[in-house]
């Protein structure tokens, strides 16, 4: 135990650097996936067949490719096309796009759960599509969408470790690097696991709270 | 010129021919009740009038404007022809007053303060002055329907369409809603009301349409049609509605 504490104090600063990157990648891809997911979802429910078709094709394509392959594509293939990105940028974009598919399905389910009568009531007071979405549908869908959204956040936090495959020295990769140079596997990976838990447990509790608050009435 | 004109309107859902040639008109200040058996197309024809539903052929005009749900002009029609639904369809995330001012503020762009003042007046008029800040789930069905009527009135409509406004209500709550509707009729509001409340129709309607199988099977002044129907199917229908087994 003494040894564990001593090693921990030594390793923590380096691991915290990794943790910083984990947070950056997670937050960045969360914002991107939310924006894109909302866009796909709105295209799906727009009632315009071309837009709905584009969104559906895009979402299904993304869902059918492993995240790691998407990351490789963005980091290793795009430079050949003249677009070069830093590893962190590539990770944010790759995870953001990959997760936009899940976000979009969640948002769409939330939007479609709203009673048709709400749309009709909005239409009969002269609201168009945009106003109906903004004033009537989305505020109600928000509550339905929130608990699953929290779960997606937790998955993203954990999946940000996939950024290590394109050289982002986030928490998991930092851990692996320290472990392979010090051979303190137990200490290092226990610390890494604890650090992930410190971030995900508050989120898990938050989701539980949201489910109780907004769950099915 | 009549306010609402329907000319030989047809409408199918797939192979189901729901409206099969309806021609009628509603004049300013007139109260027209539509009665008829379930599935006869009452809701559908009402929903065609404000473009909630499209129609296949024939024409519907409101003050001369063709009602076309895909045209820009549909907004002009909808802001002048309000609608009240069987299931109220209030916005659950907004208070009674917010429900009422939603259209005036966000569609008609009235100043919020004016809309609120008008909204309070309307809620008072439907007997809900003390429920201004209540959310729909805190209100009874009858109260919700009166908020819905206030929401319709807030648009300062020229006509209001009602689709079985009391059918989802407990019997003891029907009276309050009908009283509000009666007072609107007395003030000269143009109303088209789909209803099973034959007593209300007899008392308030100027004219009654009996719909059967997507056509107007009989049409006439309320007192005449309801007490002395000529069409045997009207007679049959009225007998069943007035004396349920
Ligand atoms: N959106 C729809 N899609 C397919 N069929 C529909 C749709 N709306 C109505 N119908 C059909 O059209 C016919 C007429 O329906 P409508 O709702 O106008 O009848 P109604 O006279 O209002 O009946 P009720 O008294 O039961 O309300 C019914 O056969 C119904 O099944
Ligand atoms: Mg109906």
From TrEMBL, chain A:
<keyword id="KW-0813">Transport</keyword>
<dbReference type="GO" id="GO:0022857">
    <property type="term" value="F:transmembrane transporter activity"/>
</dbReference>
<dbReference type="GO" id="GO:0006865">
    <property type="term" value="P:amino acid transport"/>
</dbReference>
<feature type="transmembrane region" description="Helical">
    <location>
        <begin position="188"/>
        <end position="208"/>
    </location>
</feature>
<protein>
    <submittedName>
        <fullName>Amino acid ABC transporter permease</fullName>
    </submittedName>
</protein>
<dbReference type="InterPro" id="IPR035906">
    <property type="entry name" value="MetI-like_sf"/>
</dbReference>
<keyword id="KW-0472">Membrane</keyword>
<dbReference type="InterPro" id="IPR010065">
    <property type="entry name" value="AA_ABC_transptr_permease_3TM"/>
</dbReference>
<dbReference type="GO" id="GO:0043190">
    <property type="term" value="C:ATP-binding cassette (ABC) transporter complex"/>
</dbReference>
<feature type="domain" description="ABC transmembrane type-1">
    <location>
        <begin position="19"/>
        <end position="207"/>
    </location>
</feature>
<comment type="similarity">
    <text>Belongs to the binding-protein-dependent transport system permease family. HisMQ subfamily.</text>
</comment>
<dbReference type="InterPro" id="IPR000515">
    <property type="entry name" value="MetI-like"/>
</dbReference>
<keyword id="KW-0812">Transmembrane</keyword>
<keyword id="KW-0029">Amino-acid transport</keyword>
<feature type="transmembrane region" description="Helical">
    <location>
        <begin position="21"/>
        <end position="42"/>
    </location>
</feature>
<dbReference type="Pfam" id="PF00528">
    <property type="entry name" value="BPD_transp_1"/>
</dbReference>
<dbReference type="InterPro" id="IPR043429">
    <property type="entry name" value="ArtM/GltK/GlnP/TcyL/YhdX-like"/>
</dbReference>
<keyword id="KW-1133">Transmembrane helix</keyword>
<keyword id="KW-1003">Cell membrane</keyword>
UniProtKB/TrEMBL annotation, chain B:
<feature type="domain" description="ABC transporter">
    <location>
        <begin position="4"/>
        <end position="238"/>
    </location>
</feature>
<keyword id="KW-0067">ATP-binding</keyword>
<keyword id="KW-1003">Cell membrane</keyword>
<dbReference type="InterPro" id="IPR003439">
    <property type="entry name" value="ABC_transporter-like_ATP-bd"/>
</dbReference>
<dbReference type="Pfam" id="PF00005">
    <property type="entry name" value="ABC_tran"/>
</dbReference>
<dbReference type="GO" id="GO:0016887">
    <property type="term" value="F:ATP hydrolysis activity"/>
</dbReference>
<dbReference type="InterPro" id="IPR050086">
    <property type="entry name" value="MetN_ABC_transporter-like"/>
</dbReference>
<dbReference type="InterPro" id="IPR017871">
    <property type="entry name" value="ABC_transporter-like_CS"/>
</dbReference>
<protein>
    <submittedName>
        <fullName>Arginine ABC transporter ATP-binding protein</fullName>
    </submittedName>
</protein>
<keyword id="KW-0813">Transport</keyword>
<dbReference type="GO" id="GO:0015424">
    <property type="term" value="F:ABC-type amino acid transporter activity"/>
</dbReference>
<dbReference type="GO" id="GO:0005524">
    <property type="term" value="F:ATP binding"/>
</dbReference>
<dbReference type="InterPro" id="IPR003593">
    <property type="entry name" value="AAA+_ATPase"/>
</dbReference>
<comment type="similarity">
    <text>Belongs to the ABC transporter superfamily.</text>
</comment>
<keyword id="KW-0547">Nucleotide-binding</keyword>
<dbReference type="InterPro" id="IPR027417">
    <property type="entry name" value="P-loop_NTPase"/>
</dbReference>
<keyword id="KW-0472">Membrane</keyword>
<dbReference type="GO" id="GO:0005886">
    <property type="term" value="C:plasma membrane"/>
</dbReference>
<dbReference type="InterPro" id="IPR030679">
    <property type="entry name" value="ABC_ATPase_HisP-typ"/>
</dbReference>
């Amino acid at each position: 135990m003494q040894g564990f504490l001593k090693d921990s104090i030594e390793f923590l600063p380096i691991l915290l650097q990794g943790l910083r990157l984990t947070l950056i990648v997670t937050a960045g891809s969360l914002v991107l996936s939310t924006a894109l997911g909302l866009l796909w979802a709105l295209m799906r429910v727009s009632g315009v067949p071309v837009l709905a078709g584009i969104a559906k094709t895009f979402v299904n394509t993304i869902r059918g490719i492993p995240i790691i392959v998407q990351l490789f594509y963005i980091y290793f293939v795009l430079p050949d096309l003249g677009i070069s990105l830093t590893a962190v940028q590539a990770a944010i974009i790759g995870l953001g796009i990959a997760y936009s598919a899940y976000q979009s399905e969640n948002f769409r389910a939330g939007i479609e759960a709203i009673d048709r009568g709400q749309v009709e009531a909005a239409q009969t007071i002269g609201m168009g599509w945009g106003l109906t979405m903004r004033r009537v549908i989305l505020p109600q869908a928000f509550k339905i969408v929130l608990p699953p959204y929290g779960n997606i956040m937790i998955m993203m936090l954990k999946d940000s470790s996939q950024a290590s495959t394109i050289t982002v020295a986030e928490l998991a990769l930092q851990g692996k690097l320290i472990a392979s140079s010090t051979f303190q596997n137990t200490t290092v990976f226990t610390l890494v696991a604890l650090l992930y838990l410190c971030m995900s447990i508050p989120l898990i509790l938050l989701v539980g709270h949201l489910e109780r608050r907004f769950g099915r009435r | 010129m009549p306010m609402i004109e329907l000319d030989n309107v047809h409408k199918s859902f797939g192979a189901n021919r729901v409206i099969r040639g309806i021609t009628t008109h509603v004049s300013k200040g007139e109260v027209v009740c539509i009665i008829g058996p379930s599935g006869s197309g009452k809701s559908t024809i009402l929903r065609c009038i404000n473009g909630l539903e499209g129609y296949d052929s024939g024409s519907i005009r409101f003050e001369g404007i063709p009602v076309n749900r895909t045209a820009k002009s549909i907004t002009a029609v909808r802001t002048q022809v309000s609608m009240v639904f069987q299931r109220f369809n209030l916005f659950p995330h907004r208070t009674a007053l917010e429900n009422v001012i939603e259209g005036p503020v966000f569609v008609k762009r009235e100043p919020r303060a004016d809309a609120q003042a008008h909204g309070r007046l309307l809620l008072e008029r439907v007997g809900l002055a003390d429920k201004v800040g209540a959310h729909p789930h805190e209100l009874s069905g009858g109260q919700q329907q009166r908020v819905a009527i206030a929401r319709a009135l807030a648009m300062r409509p020229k006509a209001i369409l009602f689709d079985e406004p009391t059918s989802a209500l407990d019997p003891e709550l029907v009276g309050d809603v009908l009283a509000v509707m009666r007072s609107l009729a007395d003030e000269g509001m143009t109303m088209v009301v789909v209803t099973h409340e034959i007593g209300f129709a007899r008392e308030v309607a100027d004219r009654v349409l009996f719909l059967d199988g997507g056509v107007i099977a009989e049409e006439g002044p309320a007192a005449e049609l309801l007490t002395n129907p000529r069409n045997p199917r009207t007679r049959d229908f009225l007998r069943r509605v007035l004396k349920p087994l």
